[in-house]
Amino acid sequence: MAVPCFFHVDMDAFYASIEQIDNPELQGKAVIVGGTSVRGVVSACSYEARVYGVHSAMPIFQARKLCPEGSFLPVRMTRYLEMSRFIMEILREFSPTIQQISIDEGFLDMTGTELLLGSPEFAATRLKQKVHEKTGLTISIGIGSSKFIAKMASAYGKPNGLLRVLPGKEIAFLDSCTIREIWGIGKKAAASLADKGITSVKKLRSFDEDTLRKLFGTSAGTYYYNASRGIDPGIFSEAPKSRSISNETTLHTDESDSELIRQIVFDLSHQVYFRTLTEGIIGKTAYIKIKYADFSSVSSQKTYEQPFLSAEELFHSAWDLFSIRWNKKPLRLLGVGIGSIVKRNSPMQTELFETVYSKKHDLEKAIHSMKASGMHLIKASTLMHQIDKKEKKKL
Amino acid sequence: MKFICEKNTILKEIAIAQEIISSRNALSVLSNVLLETSQNTLTIKATDLKIGFKTQIPVETEEEGITTVFCDKLLGILRSLPEGDIEFEDIDEIVVIRPLFQKMDFKLRSISPDKFPELRIAEEESFFSVPQKDFIEMIKQTIFSVSTDETRFFMNGVYMEQSNSGLIMVATDGRRLSYINKIMDKPIPMFKPIIIPPKILNLITKLCSGEGSIIFSINDNYIFVEFDSHKIYSTLIEGQFPNYRRVVPEKQQYTSIIDKNSFLDALKRVSLLVDQKSNRLFLDIDEGAITLFTEENDIGMAREEIPCDYSGEKIRLAVNYMYMINPVKAIDTEQFIISFTEANKAITIVSEPEKDFFHIIMPMQLD
User: Fold this and answer.
1) Which residue ranges in chain B fall short of pLDDT 50?
2) What is the pLDDT of residue B165?
3) What is the CATH number of domain B2-115?
4) Does A303 contact B at CB distance below 8 Å?
5) For a Cys staple, B29 with which of A150, B98, B115, B174, CB 3.0–4.6 Å?
6) Is the pLDDT of residue A241 over 70?
């Protein structure tokens, strides 16, 4: 059996770097991508901006204070998605088993590829070169005997990093990390560990599983036990049973206008549905998420016997769920998702009766293939005008 | 209230009452069955507010009266008792159940009958009757096609309408459809088509003796039926049943005559190995033979060939085997006919010789 070998590929300052290669004038400058409204937060920032103390998830106004010279740009999701897909294709040339975990991160199972691609370090260097040649972007790669170790290793050398944790050296590597650097241990978890006097990975490892489970609960206890031993605690295990695709929007200002909310649910439903088309999957469960101005949140879901075959259908179910759950108070965030996913080419049962959605289904498929081939389509929707009017009123 | 009754006589009716009652809360009157004695008759009533049930059995009344008791426990007690006569007596909100000549008694708390919901009564004029035997056959040919998808509530029941010469019943879940048009000796009066929930139809099939007739009355979104000594009513499903006539193929190009039992046996064997997710079964129909097989999947595959009477092009059909089993089982002739036109169009199943019913199954995609 070959020794397991995983790459964790992480694109450096992904959104900001794309803005820099698309507009060479921004090279070497502080670039901050994020919401442009008062409410906005930083989605990504270039390393030049990080020098000023700007980091992602920071409110935009604060970033402006810290880095007044910076270029503040809006999020161009379509462009980033396109680039992400392009890079994932390059990754696929190196391993048939890749697992994308977000727009700018992925795992490659490189087990047994040495004869074909050379040593892991060599293959990783070539991968970095190839991505840079084809896109101008830099990536960081961590190499380890599990996804967990690889993920932690990639964080070590950022940006443009490459670190391999040799098989057998996992414990030594972990001991060189602080508790907070262990993947999956956040601020709160680190604090609760510190409360019990556990301030180093070595110390954490000195406890047996039962004790940790008693101290921190069963799932956290087992997680700590495994993580401190370099055993993949299973955060990135593949093929989760209930995959879902969702999308959410934080509103510019808290909203309670029913028409506007309906339009946003409509847009989210379409975005989510088109993603299922791109990924060649279908789902039977509609999800919604509501977050009120006071940060309290509600979610709801409904599973149907037949999968959604059109965005309209998803929208109607999502809107039904909204109508039931939403108490008409101002909202700050809305989300729509689709779950109970199966591959689109699963054997399909044909229907006796034509539903209102059967025709929409064909139309949407056509629109999707036009979009996929790069055509720019303009939506003709009367609802859109209403939104425009509202936005203008606010300005 | 005090009466004596033979165990099995009352047990049978209480078991039905319990099927109707949906509440399991011992403190709710809706979990109770109502018992009322008058002369030498015991009236038993149960309801879940949607369905109401009333039946009468002969008893030996010693003292007339009325009460309600927790049906679930009453049923449990009756089941556990030895054969023979049982005495029931209502004393201060307690019902005492005492098998005669036995050294045992049970006491069940009762709830005042005043709180028991009033059962609906059918309007006198609008009655019509059909033979029990015919109506049971109509139910048996259709009920399995009812949809359980609550989002399509209007398909959650069996559609019934009056036809020129009798009654039509249709059930569908959107992927298969069952239809029967029973000719009746007596004309059926006009009524607005209705959608009947399966619960009452199941009760009717279970309770009907098969002899005599069943009397219907339909009004105000309720259906009332009366047969033997039972009276049952149910709310109807409100909604628009799909226009089923539009999806019934007018004619099919090819027909294949198959022995029912050989097909059913083959279907049961081959379906052991269908892909669990899709339930997809393939049928290769060729001159003289029909082959049932599954695709190769994680578990394995199965194949069986049986003779059939067919002359036409060789064709491959794919269906959800579950949709095939019920209609074929419901066929009451030795042979039946599968007819079709194209692989992606509706398939029709009828008996041979053809009778007053048919089943339509939508195929699955072949690849």
Assistant:
1) none
2) 85
3) 3.10.150.10
4) no
5) B115
6) no
Only one residue has tokens 């979009």, namely A371
Chain A residues within an 8 Å CB radius of B274: none
Interface probe, candidates A304, A305, A314, chain B, greatest B C-beta count within 10 A: A305
- Per residue in B38-51, pLDDT (tens digit) is 999 999 999 998 99
Residues A224 and A212 sit within 8 Å (Cβ to Cβ): yes
Q: What does the alpha-carbon distance between residue B47 and residue B235 come to, in Å, rounded to a whole number?
A: 12
Q: How far is A265 from chain B (nearest CA, A)?
A: 21
Of the candidates B29, B314, B155, B102, the one whose C-alpha atom is nearest the C-alpha of residue A305 is: B155
CATH number given to A245-357: 3.30.1490.100
Which of B247, B320, B365 shows the shortest C-beta gap to A352? B247
Percent of chain A with pLDDT over 70: 85
CA B100 to each of CA A11, B9, B40, B62, B104: distance values in angstroms, whole numbers, following the listed order: 86, 15, 18, 14, 9
d(CA B162, CA B179) in angstroms, rounded, equals 13
Question: How many residues are recorded in chain A?
Answer: 395
Classify domain A171-227 at the CATH superfamily level.
5' to 3' exonuclease, C-terminal subdomain (1.10.150.20)
- From the candidate CATH numbers 3.10.150.10, 3.40.390.30, 3.60.21.10, 3.40.1570.10, the one assigned to the domain spanning B249-361: 3.10.150.10
Task: Give B16-39 pLDDT, tens digit per residue.
Answer: 999 999 777 777 899 999 999 999
Catalytic residue positions of A?
105
Provide the β-strand partners of residue B214: B130
Beta pairing partners, A108: A7, A98
